[in-house]
Each structure stands twice: as structure tokens, then as C-alpha cells.
Amino acid sequence: MLKETPVTVRPIALQDYDDWCLLYAAYAEFYAVKQTQAMRDQVWQWLQQSPPVIYALVAVNTERQILGLLHYRIFARPLAATLGAYVDDLFVVPAARGQGIAQQLIQAVAEIGQESRWSVIRWMTAKDNMRARACYDKVAEHTAWQTYEIKLPQ
Hints:
Elements: E1 7-11, H1 17-30, H2 37-48, E2 55-61, E3 66-77, E4 82-92, H3 101-116, E5 120-123, H4 130-139
Parallel strand pairs: 4-5
Antiparallel strand pairs: 1-2, 2-3, 3-4
Helix pairs in contact: 1-2
């Protein structure tokens, strides 16, 4: 386990590429998703383009190690005539779990949302990811909505 040190949450930066790749690959492995370097490079390009397709926050300790990441994107809510954000990915390295890093990342995106006047932040997790669910139950409400998807050929 990593020694507990103060953590700073900040937007991702160009110099974070290598560490971000390692974390994002570990996140994909956690969910048993086959991911290639080309796929990570595509996501990195989305993060870096202007304006970004998706945004990223990272949690960094005093040794400049990235201990967690959060990707989010802004979406329109036509029925409410507001904007919201959707968190696509949230991952904390296993050795740093239980230190409140996920909550810090969620709080940081919530602060961005308040400043940007979003009306909601949403995300989902696997039903069997009990550790994440226990964390999320402390900071958000579980909704009654079901998730559906149509897989399209690539």
C-alpha cells in the first residue's frame, strides 16, 4: 500500500501521458476490457484536442505520482434545458484505495459543475463493484433508471 500523503486533484497535463496510459490500461484490465495502445492514444487525442471531446482530472500525490483519474464529458439535457456531465471513467490505483481519492475526484468535478452551472453529474458502475458502490453511495443518489445500449458494428 502506498503511504498516505496529501493528494491534489488537477486537470490532466501533457506530461501525464505515460502515467495516464498505465492507469488507463489498469482500469481497462479491471473491467476485463481488451484495450490497445492505439485505443489509449485515441482517448488521449480526445483529451488534448480543443475543445476536448472528454475532460480528465488526475489525483496526484506530493511525489507527483498519479494515483487516480476521472474522465467526464458535458451533455445537453433538453427536457431540463440545462447542461450536465457524465463521468465515464473513475479509477484509483489499488494501493491507494481507501484514502478518499475517489471522493476527492468526484468533489472536484462537482465543483467544476457548480462553477459551470450544470444541473447534474451522472455515472454508472458495475453491479458487482461493491467497493465503488459503497463509495458512490456516500456522495450521490442511486437512481431508478435502467441503462440500455445498442452495440453497433465497428
